[in-house]
Amino acid sequence: MVVDKSETRVRRMFAEIAGKYDRMNHLLSMNVDRYWRWRTVKIVPPTGDAPILDVCTGTGDLALAYYRAAKGKVRVDATDFCPEMLEVGEEKKNRAKIGDMIRFQEADTQALPFKDDTFQIVSVAFGLRNVTNTDLGLSEMTRVCRPGGKIAVLEFSIPTWQPFKAFYLWYFRNILPMLGRLFAKNREDAYKYLPDSVGEFPYGEALAERMRAAGLQDVFYKSLTFGIATLYVGTK
Predict the structure, then answer these.
(1) Residues 6+ apart with CB under 8 A from 42
(2) CA 36 to chain centre
(3) I want to staple 59 with a disulfide (CB 3.0 to 4.6 A). Which of 69, 88, 109, 195 is the partner?
């Protein structure tokens, strides 16, 4: 069965869980999600003074990681099409007293409101698979990236090593949705959508090929934590 990734459904689903999103991420990943973002910034670090864009930013964790990596000297734009998620990001930004060096903006990754060749890095963490048209999202990310700039895609993937793969899939398909229903209590059942959408989404070489088709070169990918997540990097 094809997962419903319509803009209306995905926006409504994330609006319902926005207030619990960070806590659920840290709980269900046992805080490993923090490490994945740290690795992303280490592998694709900021250089120079050109701005950085984080799309499908959610509550802004990767945008904040890039702000810290650049020591607050580079503007970071953070976009998402769910205003409720952006509100949580704004609260985190205000608590950290960051000011205007991070700018949260409502925008669909399939139609980014930026000029061509603007950003040194365009990143996305666990959001590309929620974009209705994956190829259009990658095309837009590439369009707004500067020549020589990097596209960084951090996304869930399916481990290949047994017996870990069997255990992971059992947890992912059975325990995770149950915990999600228990703690998040949202009508759209976001934590059943999560394993369903990951199971459908291309990973490994399949996603790397989609990035090449979007016009990126020197595409490589790095498996993280036994293959639970994968970081894909391409150069414009």
Answers:
(1) none
(2) 11
(3) 88
